[in-house]
Amino acid sequence: MDAHVQIGASSNLQLRHAVLVYTDQQRAFATLHDIVTQAEGAPLLAPAQPLTLAFLRRLAEGLGSQVAPELLPENVLARTPEMIVWWSPAARRIMFFGEAGEEARKLNGLNFPHPALVFKVCGRELFVRALAKNARPRVDKPLKTAPYWNTAGDGGRVCLGSTRTPESASVESIKSWEAAFFQSAFTHPLGAVRLTNHKQGFIGLWRSLVGKRVFPVRYLTDAKETLRQFVTRER
User: Fold this and answer.
1) What is the domain count for the chain?
2) Residue 197 maps to a domain
3) Tens of pLDDT, residues 125-165
4) Which tens digits make up the pLDDT trace of 87-106?
5) Neighbour-count burial for 59-82, b at 16+ CB within 10 Å, e otherwise
6) By residue range, what is the domain housing residue 42?
7) Does one domain contain both 104 and 200?
8) Cα-Cα-Cα-Cα dihedral sign, residues 132, 198, 158, 180
9) What is d(CA 96, CA 151) in angstroms, rounded to the nearest whole number?
10) Is it the case that residue 5 has pLDDT exceeding 90?
11) Rounded distance, CA 111 to CA 104, Å?
């Protein structure tokens, strides 16, 4: 395997430390080793020493020194190098149901009103929740379950399947993540949590919205978490 590192300037880099990571199925720990150079042959690892916060801080600063600054638009709610969270206003969007059941196929390609939504990209995973009000949510605001197949009601994780998704979790990727979500086919329920309060269930909900302009938020179920909990939850 070839590895390439772009430094951006002429630098004299020397191998000084090595971090070894040990894992089993439940735990992980790491040790820090100085490098012992030899007149001939490959370098050797010095005895293990514990990792310190100072070393980790220097390492993190060095790794993050090449991260370009971004101007955050108003719809962005939270941002880290690995995660971005934003809200999307209520809107009318086309939905696709692919090879789902016959009743779902009758709705394929139609235009529906959708509630305001909160999206989170963490790593390469996408999560989505719904909002009761069409406004930027507060941190303590309770969220609603996103009323979509392919989306787990308990955690909001989206089953992306073979959907092509962006390579990053940047501000510039927001529109592409939303497009990946809505342009994919909603084919199956995910998990046991109810996606809607509509008395005729998921299909009945979207069938009732054909030709409507506004999504009736009374059909949304409680997600049982606030925006803060949604953002800080790892998965």
Assistant:
1) 2
2) yes
3) 999 999 999 999 999 999 999 999 999 989 999 998 778 88
4) 999 999 999 987 778 888 89
5) eeeeeeeeeeeeeeeeeebbeeee
6) 17-64
7) yes
8) negative
9) 14
10) no
11) 14
